[in-house]
Specification:
By secondary structure, this protein is of the alpha/beta class. Helix content is about 50%, strand content about 10%. It has nine helices and five strands; from the N terminus they run αβαβαβαβαβαααα.
């Protein structure tokens, strides 16, 4: 995946590039999409991040042109002829803009159940990267590294407690890390097991 997210070089090249990140639920696709969005911001690139729910009601990219477009959980747009046509239109606009497009999905293009042949053809022509579910040690490493970027040191004791008492899905762990960061900053405390217990007890 690294070769696709040297974002500054790719954006400067002004060449349309499209990538599908696909894999089972819990594999960390949304985490990757968020990391790409963050890297784009750090590189000074304009980015539109279209997420499920809100975007499913009105899929469009009206307004200022962006250098990078991210479309998370594409299944929200599959199955409806109207939604699939809007998605195809979006892809064509991004291509005309010679921007970068990243899409996340639970399946590779052929397994999505797409009804619109032109849309299936466009998706199959994209670079396809399978995102495999990480094992526990890999999730711990991802969580530890992401915490360090925020200035948080997660001890083995804290990680052991997290993996024993909370969800082991990477997306949920990333959400918890966000909450830990806010709580530790507001209370000017290190991330400890008592802090986590209090945070989770409050919901």
């Amino acid at each position: 995946l690294q070769r696709f997210i040297s974002l500054r070089d790719a954006a400067d090249a002004r060449a349309y590039t499209a990538v599908i990140l696909w894999g089972a639920s819990g594999a960390g696709k949304t985490h990757l999409m968020s990391a790409i969005a963050l890297r784009a911001k750090q590189a000074g690139l304009t980015c539109a991040y279209i997420q499920p729910g809100r975007a499913a009601q009105n899929l469009s990219i009206e307004g200022a042109q962006r250098q990078i477009y991210l479309l998370d959980e594409i299944e929200a747009f599959i199955g409806s002829a109207e939604a699939e046509q809007r998605l195809l239109t979006l892809i064509e606009i991004v291509k005309q803009q010679q921007a970068l497009l990243f899409i996340s999905a639970r399946h590779a293009a052929r397994g999505m159940g797409i009804k619109l042949p032109d849309l299936l053809s466009r998706l199959q022509a994209m670079d396809s990267v399978e995102v495999r579910v990480l094992d526990e040690s890999q999730k711990r490493e991802v969580l530890r590294k992401r915490a360090l970027r925020r200035g948080i040191i997660l001890s083995n004791e804290v990680l052991n407690w997290l993996f024993t008492h909370t969800s082991r899905e990477l997306s949920m762990l990333m959400d918890l890390l966000e909450q830990m960061d806010v709580r530790s900053l507001s209370q000017k405390r290190k991330v400890t097991i008592p802090l986590l217990k209090a945070m989770l007890a409050e919901g």
